[in-house]
Amino acid sequence: MIPLGLDNPAWLLLLPLALLPWFGNPERTVQHPALGLIPPDALSRGVFLALRVTASATVIALSLAMSGLHLREQVVSRFGQGAHMVFLLDRSSSMDADFAGRNPEGGKESKAATARRLLRPFLARRPHDLVGVVSFSTAAIPVLPLTDHRPAVEAALDVLDTRGLALSNVGRGLYRALEEFSLDARVASRAIVLVSDGAATIGARAQELIRRRFNERDVNLYWLFLHTAGGGGPLDEPESARDDKPSAMPERFLHKFFGTLDVEYQLFDVANAAEVEKALEMIGKLESHKLLVEERTPRVDLGPICIGLALAGLCALVAARLSEVSAWAA
Q1: What is the CATH number of domain 79-294?
Q2: Global pTM value
Q3: 56, 69, 143, 296: which is deepest, by most CB within 10 A?
């Protein structure tokens, strides 16, 4: 069924006027002394019928044009490859430094800028993904809900091109990112990609809430850890038992907590842009599943087509009128 719509259906009351050409004889008459001697003219009868059809079609086209005829917006469902992913981006001040831990100078870029730059081509290669963006520092900031509108995703990444704040609360960020997903895990493969260069202690109550949310929503987790040269990392081992505590090694304990979640979890400890790119490529391979894609086709205004048809009909009728003769040549 064609999804047609009308903006002003009252104009359809003009449609009965399309019957007028079929009543009476609008053509000019020419007298002849012996009509019976004139042979049947199939061509003239065909032209006569065509002109009546043209007149009726012109009235119909004008009525539909004034009624605002259009094809309604549609949602087309089909299968594609991809996933629903929320990118959880650290906006703490340490992300403004480069991988060497210094302020970027001489054409170098910060870790945050590197992540944003490499996310763009990664997402461009995955047109069927639904993508959301959440940032966090002292609090979680929802930037963009899950969407397939790529210009909106680009704009969301551009919005994050600001200086970071002092502290980082990854627990609040994770909880807010999980809220972006519905409880129905059958829709598609879902994942959170945490992009950060550090960690902070997550309390026992927050850990329990996050664990419950992961179980309810069945979301995979990938930690893209941007390792600063000379800094601690999730895979570091304590030098002594005194150092083996969350306050001293928050990245190590956050990694251990992620490993206890009953979901697919993978850490990518990267130290430069090339390793970030490889990690994103690996995440892309892991999150490439069949999913149902809903694409919206925009409304199509059919008014110009109707006006064009009506104009063509009027031109044909005027040309036919001008070609009529008032008397037979002697």
Answers
A1: 3.40.50.410
A2: 0.69
A3: 69
